[in-house]
Amino acid sequence: MLIDTHCHLDHPRFDNDRADVIARARGAGLHHMITIGCDLKSSRRALDLAKTHTALYATVGIHPHDAQEAMPDHDEALKALSAHPKCVAIGECGLDFYYDNSPRTEQEDVFRRQIRLAHDVALPLVIHVRDAWERFFAILDEEGVPERGGVVHCFTGTQDNADESLKRGLHLSIPGVLTFKNPGDLPEVVKTMPADRFFVETDSPFLAPIPHRGKRNEPSFVVAVAQKVAELRDTTYDAVAAQTTANANAFFRL
Fold first, then answer.
1. What is the rounded CA–CA span in Å between residue 27 and residue 21?
2. How far is CA 52 from CA 44, 47, 200, in A?
3. Which of 42, 163, 236, 250 is most buried, with most CB under 10 Å away?
4. Which residues are within 8 A (CB) of 1 and not within 5 positions of it... i.e. 6 or more apart?
């Protein structure tokens, strides 16, 4: 019993064996996987996948890397996609000032538009933040956290970043980075975060956890993330699996 709350199953790296990847995840005990939209095309692909697999749900959104490609009419297109019952959130959206693949002003504009969309359609946000915490919190405070809340996906920030996120009612999604040799503040964050405010994810095909480093990541590998969380929180894998499944079910209304 486990849920991978963030994967990219529409990615070309899964084109040759997508069905097998999903089957392995189910065999590893995953009840559901949430496949994430990063632009209009991938949002459509994610939702199409979710429509054809009972274990899959989808999100629709514009990643900060793709913000400069987001046209004004994309907002209405995303809104239309979000009406499908298999769509459970808006995003992946947010700010990435590390790569700066899109101009920061455009990242901020597109992020604001998606926060407003989440308010409008009553869905939670799936948020990407990298090297942009101050602007992220400022924009979120100005626009208001959507009623359904939000999750900082692939959380790898500091304890202060975690505290500020939790203070705003956000959830934290813990990635395979937790298993790396240099995970930063993440182990301490994991030890102290509230039991009802976190999920586990793979972000596959990226960031494969130990012992799968160097391989293409896939949803079944989320088991390794949950095992590490259990170790750090001095509890059992089954307890973490049950807790994160309950958290995800409630947050995404699966």
1. 10
2. 13, 9, 24
3. 42
4. 29, 31, 241, 242, 245
Q: Which two tokens stand for residue 101?
A: 């693949």
Q: Under 8 Å CB-to-CB from 221, ≥6 apart: which residues?
A: 176, 202, 204, 208, 209, 212
Q: Which domains does the chain have, with CATH numbers?
A: 2-252 (3.20.20.140)
Residues with Cβ within 8 Å of 235's Cβ and at least 6 positions away in sequence, in order, are none
Pairwise CA distance, residues 185 & 246, whole Å: 25
pLDDT digits (tens, 9 = 90+) for 61-114: 999 999 999 998 999 999 999 999 999 999 999 999 999 999 999 999 999 999
What average pLDDT does range 180-202 have in this prediction? Answer: 97
For the whole prediction, is pTM greater than 0.90? yes
Q: How far apart are CA 251 and CA 102, in angstroms?
A: 30
- The CA–CA distances, whole Å, from 82 to 55, 88, 118, 253 equal 18, 8, 9, 14
